[in-house]
Amino acid sequence: MSADRETIAVYDARSADYATMVSAWETPGIDTFIAAMPHPAYVLDLGCGPGLDARRMLDAGLTVDAVDASAQMVRVAQAAGVTARQALFDEIDGEDLYDGIWANFSLLHAPRAAFPFHLMALKRAIKPGGLLHLGMKLGEGEGRDGLGRFYTYYDEDDLVRHLTMTGCTPAARFRGVGKGLSGEESPWIWIHAHG
Fold first, then answer.
1. Are 133 and 195 in contact (CB under 8 A)?
2. CB–CB of 77/84 below 8 Å?
3. Contact 58, 34 (CB under 8 A)
4. What is this structure's pTM?
């Protein structure tokens, strides 16, 4: 499944705006995620954006594999001292590599048909019992936001079902509402699941 070029182009063009926006946020779930990691720990930041979460994990002593589909976001993350690399969801492979996977509002850009395959790749890549953080917007259907980014929306039961079918065990959950780069307010959820 190829990446959505229009979505990546928006992040390339608006990387500075996005970095400024997320730098003002408190990232829900990150403290719990970091606290759950063994030391030393190797984690994947899938869709690292400007690298702020990866930087926080590095500062906490974790080793981070930070990846993003946007070349410009990778450059911004690298400027923040994060060793980031460009990669698409399809390029995540390997087995039993990571103690944790931080997929915070990244997989919501994957088409619904590809979502189960991406989750399976993450399940293979995480060590047994490792922690997967999945942040997604809540809703129905697929479509583009006001900036042209592609989104797929799920309800909580759908996400739990997908995780369970993948062999993960959903645990903690948290819901919220917020505005993103487009200025549109939307409900979201994160779920922590064990691989």
1. no
2. yes
3. no
4. 0.94
